[in-house]
Amino acid sequence: MDSINRKRGHIKSALDQEHSASCFDSIRLKHRSLPNISLHQIVLDTPFFEKPTNAPFFVSSMTGGPSESERINRHLAEACNELQIAMGVGSQRVSIQDGEAHGLNWSVRHAIGDLPLFANFGAVNLPHLKVVQELGRILDPIEADALILHLNPMQEVFQPNGDTDWREIIGHISKVCEWSPVPVVVKEVGFGLDVHSSKELISAGVKILDVAGTGGTRFADIEIELNKDISEILSTNDVFDNWGYTTTECLINIRRELPASTCWASGGIRNGLDIAKSMCLGASAAGIAGRLLQPATESTDAVLRVMRQFISELRITCFGLGVAAVRELNTKHILDDTRLD
User: In this structure, are residues 149 and 186 in contact, taking their beta carbons and an 8 Å threshold?
Assistant: First the structure.
């Protein structure tokens, strides 16, 4: 299966996935009977790389490559433009492999305007570049404000001919950080960033850790579903169903070991309440993907409806906590937070 058809399979499988209970359900926040603030005066404004936006969440990297992706990304970008929300695009590897015919182009930047837009490339593909400057071919067309490098070892291992040689990848990430004209973000793809790897990434020059824990789109399941020879390596398709860290586990562990690091939370963010909970756990922003994919296949208006719900839910959460601005969210607002110390 070529990369374009595999991306199409990703979209279909992701849309078909059902989601179970969330790690955020175990986090309870402290209600304030006298909030002493006005609901409509609550400040949600959040800067991304010195650019202002209207909320502390962004469209997390979803899909890149096939022509369907351009339509999906355009709907997302148009909605982001209207509500002033940041956005990350899906993997742009095909832009380097196959040229612009199958890659994201300036149309996404045109649709989102001057708002923060993040490029995306697989860390395991860095050794295949002739020179690190080739990444300019994905940064320049969308005038990217940051470069996301995604880590997906437990996705690649289930792909036919997947990239399973991860030796020296941290060295390549370090070289990208040295060269990159924009900040580098490293993102997991649904298995969660562990503390050991997080320390290596910070030392390599990575500016932001997107923890991307379990609970959202299950990319391993997608690859297992698409791999017709999967029975040769797995006895049953669910052997690794419980592998990885939840988003809340990642935030708690990284905050404890790397308190000065900047984290984004993605992986199972279902609503504005989950965004607030992730920020109470130490995230500076949250990424949303799964909840937006189906609306993005339909229209810009469908995406806007979901985004407005997230904004409303986040505002209501702040109101219920008596918090006048999202930047004030912290562990003090978590009920029984002694287990987080």
Answer: yes
Read out DSSP for 312-339? HHHHHHHHHHT-SBGGG--GGGBTTGGG
Domain of residue 194, residue span:
3-340
Residue 328, domain CATH = 3.20.20.70
Q: 29 by DSSP, 3-state: which?
A: strand
Q: What is the mean pLDDT of each run of 10 residues along the chain (341 residues)?
A: 47 50 92 98 97 97 65 93 96 73 70 96 96 95 96 90 94 98 96 97 98 81 81 89 94 97 96 98 96 94 98 98 98 78 47
**What is the distance between the alpha carbons of residues 147 and 61, in angstroms, rounded to a whole number?**
11
Q: How many domains does the chain fold into?
A: 1
Strands of the chain, DSSP E: 46-48, 51-53, 57-59, 86-88, 117-122, 146-151, 184-188, 208-210, 263-265, 285-288
Which pLDDT score is estimated for 100?
A: 55
pLDDT at 336 (0 to 100): 82
Q: Is residue 36 packed enough to be buried (19+ CB in 10 Å), middle (13-18) or exposed (0-12)? A: exposed
Q: Are strands 57-59 and 51-53 parallel, antiparallel or unpaired?
A: unpaired
Q: Which of 169, 101, 181 is nearest to 140 (CA)?
A: 181
